[in-house]
Amino acid sequence: MKLTLMNLFEMFDPSSNNYLSLNWLFMFLPILVFPSIYWLIQSRILYIIKLLLNFMYNEFKIISKSKYQSNIIIFISLMIYIMIVNIFSLMPYIFTLTSHLLLNMALSLTLWFSFLIYLIYNNYIAFLSHLVPLNSPVFLMNFMVIIELISLIIRPWTLSIRLSANLISGHLILTLLGIFISNFISILPINLLIQNMLLTLEIFMSIIQSYVFSILLILYFSESN
Q1: What is the dihedral of CA 11, 158, 212, 119, to 10 degrees?
Q2: Are 42 and 173 in contact (CB under 8 A)?
Q3: Which of 204, 210, 182 is nearest to 78 (CA)?
Q4: Which residue spans traverse the membrane (predicted)?
């Protein structure tokens, strides 16, 4: 049983060598595979990417204030990066980079902390007043400050854990189903159909999780402004 559990979770092990861990080089792969513009006439792939970027810009523009809409490109780039990493991690023998809190916390904590510093520096009165919601009872004000501070601090943790937990659970289900298929060859067509449906669901989940990660960050950015 111990060996089975180690085999299941070894896909999420970031260490491949004591001296050189090549797994973390996967974070630079989206930069290499993203198509470059060399032609006067756009290809179909670039046209689809352009439509996706315009759609995401219009979606994020609704949330963001008009004064700060130039910063939307940061969140669009973050979403595209996470989406590519999530989809590529579904391929065999590819390291699941976004299943680790190390990368997710690096993305969420830095942006969230910069938003918080920006809010405190520009309008610390609004930050302090936000700790006590409107129409709060007087005898609960002290507890409301503690609760609001805790909810504010755990924001980057919830972002990271949500992304990691969804990817780990999806990969484990696909791995367990693959082990089940190898043991019961007689019902192979049904198992392959189920696994293909789960793989399709996992692809959509990878896209949705990147969207949720970026949309929550831009909501935090809008609150800081």
Answers
A1: -130
A2: no
A3: 210
A4: 20-41, 72-95, 101-121, 133-154, 174-194, 201-221
- DSSP label at residue 43: P
Tokens representing residue 102 in the block: 């190390």
**pLDDT tens for residues 132-170?**
777 777 777 778 878 888 888 888 888 888 888 888 887
**Type of residue numbered 10:** E
pTM assigned to the model: 0.78
In the Cβ-directed half-sphere of 140, how many Cα atoms lie within 13 Å? 9
Residue 68 maps to a domain: yes
Output the average pLDDT for the chain: 78
Question: In the block, which residue shows the tokens 């995401």?
Answer: 56
Structural domain contains residue 1: no
Domain hosting residue 33, numbered range: 23-224
112: tokens are 């969230």
Task: Indicate the number of domains in the chain.
Answer: 1
Residues 199/90, Cβ–Cβ less than 8 Å: yes
Q: Give the amino acid at 190.
A: I
Say if residue 7's pLDDT is above 60: no
CA atoms of 135 and 177, how far apart (whole Å): 52
